[in-house]
Design brief:
This protein has two domains: 128 residues, Enolase-like, N-terminal domain (Enolase-like, domain 1, 2-Layer Sandwich); 228 residues, TIM Barrel (Alpha-Beta Barrel). The strands form four sheets. Strands 7-8-9-10-11-12-13-14 form an eight-stranded parallel β-sheet. It has a three-stranded antiparallel β-sheet with strand order 1-4-5. A three-stranded antiparallel β-sheet has the order 6-16-15, with no helix packed on it. Helix 8 links the parallel strand 11 and strand 12. The protein is an alpha/beta fold. It is 38% helix and 20% strand. Helix 4 packs parallel to helix 5. The protein binds magnesium ion.
């Protein structure tokens, strides 16, 4: 066994990978993903990969692929050269000194470091994160084609294939009345066969949410994600209290830092946290947020920023270490992309995503795929989002 050793070098690149279909959310539609892929080398020869993906450039939150790349190349990587690779807490603290905020950028670096150190020890990363409590998790698919017939067709196919039986709908781009009608139609089509959840991605104000969420619940929706703006904790609190006996309210954009988690826990402002490695600033901080959830009797959900198999496998490793109060995971990013960056994807068996057990995050990166999608080679200059249906004034 080779022990951990100092960090030798860290490199980041932006990739551009088309999606299999447009993916429509409350704030726009994407037709390609632009993950930032980080490779980190230890002086002992081991190497690891990390990833940070955003949805539609800086449309989901403040960070974009371009800002993530810049923060890593300019500030985080130089600050970490020659630091002890196994001292994860010290590495995080040093990144915090070098750079305020920038959680996505830090998460990609920490991910690559944990992959490299795990590979040095020839251990799966979950062994360094507390040990495995799940071998698999139910896997959600998001219906976001923007077309009811296509959404239903997708859902039926995935049910038949035994890939998914929990479906999430992205709503908030249409009027609330239209959303209720569309969700009701899909719910009727899937009745008795699948579970339906919705993600409003902050699109509604508190009053709209109080008025229309009961109608979605009547239609059969059981889990409601981020119905109001990120800052609107008071509305989340009211909705959680009023609707809690009939459905669960899940915070996503509102819960990023451990301090956000404490605020929500103190206010009993959600029943579930959507955990995402990128927004929490890494795998270890995801565990901190999950710890606050557990102490406050709040459940968790394994969220995605539509990462490739690199970021998805890393997320699966940390989710595997958490408790049993969960609502499944949505690490379906690889399936939404036309191609992947690893030699073999995580298997899906009987509606559940199977945790890869090999060293590191258990997936092997295909270098030719990194080169194929590298923005430096493809000549693209920005991260694309179609804001076509959004108001411009
Ligand atoms: Mg969400």
């Amino acid at each position: 066994m080779i022990g951990p050793s100092p960090i030798e070098r860290i490199e980041a690149r932006i990739l551009d990978i088309p999606t299999i279909r447009p993916h429509k959310l409350s704030f726009g539609a994407i037709s390609r993903q632009s993950p930032v892929i980080v490779q980190l080398w230890l002086r002992n020869g081991a190497t690891g990969f990390g990833e940070a993906a955003t949805i539609g450039g800086p449309s989901w939150n403040e960070e974009s692929p371009e800002s993530i790349w810049h923060a890593i190349q300019t500030y985080l990587a130089p600050a970490l050269v020659d630091q002890d690779g196994a001292a994860f807490g010290a590495v995080l603290a040093r990144m915090d000194v070098a750079c305020k905020g920038n959680a996505f950028a830090k998460s990609a670096v920490e991910m690559a470091l944990i992959d490299a150190v795990s590979r040095s020890l020839n251990l799966p990363a979950y062994q360094l994160l507390g040990g495995k409590r799940h071998q698999s998790l139910p896997l959600v698919w998001t219906l976001a084609s923007g077309d009811v017939a296509q959404d239903l067709e997708e859902a039926q196919l995935r049910l038949q294939q035994k890939r998914h039986r929990i479906f999430k709908m992205k709503i908030g781009a249409r009027t609330p009345q239209q959303d209720v009608a569309v969700v009701s139609e899909i719910a009727r089509g899937l009745a008795g066969k699948a579970t339906l959840t919705v993600d409003v991605n902050q699109a509604w104000d508190g009053h709209t949410a109080r008025r229309y969420l009961p109608q979605l619940i009547d239609a059969g929706v059981t889990l409601i994600e981020q119905p109001v703006a990120k800052w609107n904790v008071e509305a989340l609190k009211t909705l959680s209290a009023e609707l809690g006996s009939r459905a669960s309210i899940m915070a996503d954009e509102t819960v990023c830092t451990p301090q956000d988690a404490m605020l929500l826990a103190r206010g009993q402002a959600s029943h579930v946290f959507s955990l995402k490695v990128a927004k929490h600033g890494g795998l270890l901080r995801t565990r901190q947020v999950a710890g606050i959830a557990e102490a406050a009797d709040i459940g968790w959900y394994g969220g995605t920023m539509l990462e490739t198999s690199i970021g998805s496998a890393a997320s699966a490793h940390v989710f595997a270490t958490l408790n049993h109060q969960h609502h499944g995971c949505e690490l379906f990013g690889p399936q939404l992309l036309v191609d992947d960056l690893v030699t073999a994807r995580m298997p899906i068996v009987d509606f559940e995503l199977q945790l890869p057990d090999g060293p590191g995050f258990g997936v092997e990166v295909d270098q030719t795929q990194l080169d194929r999608f590298d923005r430096a080679r493809t000549g693209l200059h920005t991260t694309h989002i179609d804001l076509g249906h959004q108001a411009t004034a």
